[in-house]
Structure formats: structure tokens, C-alpha cells
Write a structure and sequence with these properties.
This protein is an alpha+beta fold. It has helices at residues 5-18, 34-38, 44-47, 125-130, 148-155, 163-167, 178-188, 201-220; strands at residues 24-29, 56-62, 65-70, 75-79, 83-88, 100-104, 109-114, 119-123, 258-262, 265-269.
């Protein structure tokens, strides 16, 4: 699974505490970095010199992205991450295998190891604005802008589309992905293929409340038990519908949970509680 809003927000808080004001003295690309470079998701092979020897001035986050802003005005964009970052107090702790290694002047270090892919991109502010993904991010459920009015207006643009796909549109609602959408729809008793137009006002209000509740609970828990933070520790949030064991029962009604492919990804649902 990729890192979603709770895991990204936790990493952002840790990076803001540990990395701000540090200066990168070297960036080393491991042999395995060739994969994300070939995908166009990493440009450190060509542009790493732009962020060397300049202090990290600000660190910000939005949705599934973290932005490191340097004193010289350059940015390091980290997003859509399937993998893990790890912080080391001394260079003696650095592992031999990694995709990218950042060495700081104070002899601490940060590694990134991809499980599939991730954006690790140097950019300037104008390039960020024009970035296909990082430059087009809506408010997240943690933001003040994510009001009930905003939520309903966003969904109203996609009345004839399935709710699971709409909740995953990052330009409308940032930070949600397959794993947490499964939990949200289970908790709200909504089938992932249900069209937005079939949700009445009461169900919309319930869905909005569940999104806020689950996102805040997961953030407070430090993210999922299946994902790692900056220090190699997992979070404490147990996903409701994440790869249930055979014959797993719905906690509400006792019906067997089922697995269904929706828009190319797995959904786990209760066929009784989440009728379409």
C-alpha cells in the first residue's frame, strides 16, 4: 500500500522536527534508484546539485505530499510514496541498500527505499505550480477548507461516478487512497460502486463525518500498523478492511466480508451492510 494522509502527516511532523535547518552535503543514488528515474519520478541524477549546501528553510505538507523548501528557493517534492524514509543519527547506522541517501553536514542521514515507486523531485516554485500531481492538490480532511459545503460541492461534480473513485480524486480531496477509503465506506455503510447521485443528504453528512473521524483517529495513532515512520516504527491504526483473513466476519452483522476489484484496486466490504 502507498502512504496516505495519516502516514504522510506523521512523516511531515517528524521531518519538520529533525530536518529543518539542516544542510545536505551529499546525495547518493543507489543502484535501485534507476527504476524511479526511468519512470520520470526522480530527477536527482540531473538536479541534485541544486539543493546541496543550502539549508532546509521550511517543510510543508498537503495530501500525500511533503515539500522541503531550501534557503536558495529550490524545492524537494516527495509524494505518492510506496516505500519508506528512515532517519539516522550517525552515518554508521546507514544500511547498504537504499534508493536515495541524503547526507547532512551534521553527519546525520536520511534514506529512501522504494517498495514500488515515489516522486523524489527537485523543482523551483513555478515548476511546482505546473506539476501534474503536486501542483493540483485539493484540501485534505485535516484542513479548515474541508467544510461540509466544500465536500458536497466537490462530489456534486461527479454525480454519475462511483463514490470510491471520486473520493480518490486528489485535486478535490487530498490524501485519501484505497486503504482508508475502504475503511471509510465500510464505516459509512456505502458500497464502493454506489453512484454519488444515490447518496441522500443524511448519507452525505454521515460520510463527511466518518472521513473526518477516521482521518483524525489515524493521525493520532501515527498512521497504519502496516507502514513505517521516520524512525522505523509502525503506527497503531488498524485498518478495518485491509486484506481480511478467510471467512472474516463483519463486526456489525456477522456476514462474511468479501473482496471486490473496483477501479483496478481491491475493496473489502460487507455485502449486507454495504448494499448497492
Amino acid at each position: 500500500m502507498g502512504l496516505e494522509l495519516p502516514e504522510i502527516y506523521n512523516l511531515y511532523q517528524q521531518m519538520d522536527k529533525r530536518l529543518k535547518n539542516k544542510i545536505i552535503r551529499d546525495i547518493i543514488l543507489g543502484e535501485r534508484s534507476k527504476g524511479i528515474i526511468k519512470l520520470g519520478m526522480c530527477n536527482l541524477d540531473k538536479r541534485k546539485d541544486e539543493i546541496l549546501n543550502s539549508s532546509i528553510k521550511h517543510i510543508q505538507t498537503r495530501g500525500k505530499w511533503i515539500f522541503l523548501e531550501f534557503e536558495n528557493g529550490k524545492l524537494l517534492l516527495l509524494g505518492e510514496i510506496i516505500g519508506k524514509f528512515r532517519y539516522y543519527e550517525t552515518e554508521d547506522e546507514i544500511p547498504t541498500n537504499y534508493h536515495v541517501l541524503f547526507k547532512f553536514k551534521d553527519h546525520t542521514a536520511l534514506t529512501f527505499q522504494s517498495s514500488l515507486y515515489a516522486f523524489v523531485v527537485v523543482a523551483d516554485p513555478e515548476e511546482l505550480k505546473n506539476h501534474k500531481y503536486a501542483g493540483n492538490i485539493g484540501p485534505s480532511p485535516l484542513d479548515e477548507e474541508f467544510t461540509y459545503s466544500y465536500f458536497t460541492n466537490s462530489l456534486s461534480k461527479y454525480k454519475n461516478r462511483g463514490i470510491k473513485g471520486v473520493l480518490n480524486i486528489q485535486s478535490e480531496i487530498a490524501g485519501l487512497g484505497n486503504a482508508y477509503i475502504n475503511d471509510i465506506l465500510y464505516q459509512a455503510k456505502i458500497h464502493p460502486k454506489a453512484k454519488v447521485s444515490t447518496l441522500d443528504e443524511a448519507k452525505m453528512k454521515e460520510l463527511y463525518s466518518v472521513i473526518i473521524e477516521i482521518m483524525n483517529s489515524a493521525v493520532e495513532a501515527g498512521g497504519s500498523v502496516n507502514e513505517y515512520d521516520l524512525y522505523g516504527e509502525t503506527g497503531n491504526y488498524v485498518r478495518i478492511g485491509d486484506k481480511p483473513k478467510k471467512d472474516m466476519k463483519c463486526a456489525r452483522c456477522g456476514t462474511n466480508m468479501v473482496k471486490m476489484n473496483v477501479l483496478g484496486s481491491s475493496s473489502y466490504l460487507c455485502p449486507e451492510c454495504q448494499r448497492i
